[in-house]
Every structure is written in C-alpha cells, then in structure tokens.
Amino acid sequence: MNDKKIIVGINASFARKPYTGIGQVTLNFLKKLSQFKVDKFNFILYLEEDLSRDFELPKNFKKRIFLPFWKRDDLIRKIWWEKCLLPRYAKKDKCSYLISPYQCPTIVSSEIKHLMITHDVIPELFPEYLNNFRKKLYWKLTKEGIKNADKIISISSRTEKDLIRHLGISPEKISINYIDADEIFKKYISDGKKQRVLSRYKLKPGYILAGGGYEARKNVAGVIRAYKILRDKNKKEYFTDEFPVLAIYGKLMPELAPLITDAEKLARELNLTQRIKFLNLVPQKDLPVLFSSAIMFVFPSFYEGFGLPVLEAMNTGTPVIAGKISSLPEVGLDSALYCHPNDPSDIAMVMKNLMVKKKLRDDLTRRGLERAKQFSWQKFTEKILNIIENIV
Predict the structure, then answer these.
(1) Measured between alpha carbons, how far is 381 from 206 in angstroms, rounded to an integer?
(2) Which residues in 364-389 are b (16+ Cβ under 10 Å) and which e?
(3) For 333-360, what is each residue's pLDDT tens digit?
(4) pTM score above 0.85
(5) Residues in a beta bridge with 106
(6) Which domains does the chain have, with CATH numbers?
C-alpha cells in the first residue's frame, strides 16, 4: 500500500455476524465503499475473522485479523478487542481516521480522528438490559467511547435526540445518516423460488408475518395477543375457511433472559399452537420470500434505533403495521399503518383494517416501495466519506 495516501481504519468486527443488524450495516457499507474509486485513501479493515471468499476488495484495501488470547466470544473478549487491541493497531498502522460502524468502547489517540456510527442507546433507556456486571461495564465504557469520538453518525433523528438528551452529546457533533436494507430485499423473486422457500417452512401465501427477535421490547407478545383478539372476534365473519396463520421468525437467545419473550409458551396459554408457526432463525436469503408472501408485516416494537425490518418489508412490497413510537414512524412515514404497541386491542384493530381492505394493502405496497427508494447505501457511504474529508 502507498504510504503517501491517507490511511483510514475500519472496525469490521461484525462482518463475522451477518445475521445481525450491525453485521448487515458493516457488510453493506464495506461492499459499497469497495466500489468507490477513492484514490486519496488506503483502507485497513480490522477483523476478528477473515471475510467470506466472495468478498473481493480493491488494491487500496488491506485486512488485519487479530484476536486476544481470550478466545471465548463474550463481553470480556469484546472489551479487550475494542478497547485495547484495536486502538493499538490503529496507532501502529498510522491511521489518520478510524471508522467504528457501531457504538463501542474504542477510544483512540488524539492524532487519529474517530468517526462512530451510533445505532441506539437501548441500555440507557432500558436499564434492565444491564443485568450483570459485565454488561454494566461494557455500557459504561461504550458511553465513554461515544463521548470521546470526534464525530458521531446517528442512523435516525430518534437516536440523535436520545444521544443529546440521555448522554449529553452536543448536537454539533452529530450527523444523521440513514442506513438501507440489504440489496437482497430489492431483487426480483421468481415464482419457483417462492414456492420452494414457502414449502420449506410449510407456509402458503397470505399469512401474517411478525418477528425480528424475541427481545421483550420487540413486542412479539403484543402481536400474539392481538392475533388472539383478531381471530376470536372475526374468524366467523371474515376468512371463514382460510383465516391467516401467524408466522413469527427470529432466534431465541437464552443469554438475554429475562429480557426475552417465551412466545411458544404464550401461544400454548392462548390455545394458538395450531395457528402460529414459529420459524426460528431464518437465513437472510429466505427473508425476502417470507416478507413478500405475507399479507402484512406486524412490528409493534416498543423501541428501535432505526427499525430495519420495516424497511426490509417495504422493499418487498409488503404492507407494514408498526408501533407509533421511537424511530418507526420516521422510517415508514405515510407508507405504513401505526398502532399503540402497548395495546393489543389497537394492534388487532389495525390488523383487521388491513386484512379486509385490499385497496389499502395495495396503496401501502405502492407507497412502501416508493418510500424504500429514499434509502441508499450509495448515499450512506458518500456521506461517510464526505464527513471524513471535513472532520476537524
């Protein structure tokens, strides 16, 4: 690499976790960045594991892979990698800039300008997430990392407001830069592929889709309770023989207990086990089919820093019902319907409205596809590069 060029380091740690939101942001940012012809910069990707073989990088990109001797993938290793090793390597490699694609404890030396992308401040708003010493320590160090960054990129105005209000960050230090959905949600899907994927999950088109995780704040419980109300009140009047089943995707993560919803237990208690299909962790490649084959996507989350599943659904033309709080109305605007997430009766009412009005579903499909075009990895990456060039 040409030493005369400006060296930009990138924390690409989450590239090894493509099924997470931060993993998707990291990978899509790197893919788009690698397509830019930026002659003035050399980029160093700091990794815990190598990138997949199909990830081609231009000549001005270099990979540095390292791990502490603590090999267990937990918060101890995470703190060690982000707080100790990463700043050391960035300094050794003479980086002028470091980009962190997520909030973390990293604090670099004063000669390196640090740009940190911040997704949310969930632990500050929901202290129940800090249910052990290691989590409390990690969040304490992360807040220090955020406050010490030279520039903060917020992925929504909701997160920007939370940073200002709860962490005391100066507004002048923050820029809003919207992320986008993965390109896979924008591609044409053949009828044959739809049939194969739906057959694998034992689904027929026209189901109600929910999911995105079983964390309590995602409010899967609210969807299940709303579905119970919807079915009990309308199973005779509407969809007599083919009342839509409820399909829920997402990985149950026991390590988040007691912050997770035991959705299967709730389904049993409400006598819904024959009407709800739990799809578990769905590979990214299958999600576009599951979205596009649903009559609606219901996402009444209590809090999101952005709400990527809403944008994923809109990209596939699926009508969306979302919670009317946090960042979700900011993402969906008038391209989604909104509900009170803490009121299952209200969720059920909005679901019924969408079920019985085909014209409304068609309108939301059209508006959702148009709204989705406003988000772009191209624009996201251009703004990051522009900020780097103008950071002081």
Answers:
(1) 36
(2) bbebbbebbeebebeebbeebbebbe
(3) 999 999 999 999 999 999 999 999 999 9
(4) yes
(5) none
(6) 6-180+376-390 (3.40.50.2000), 183-372 (3.40.50.2000)
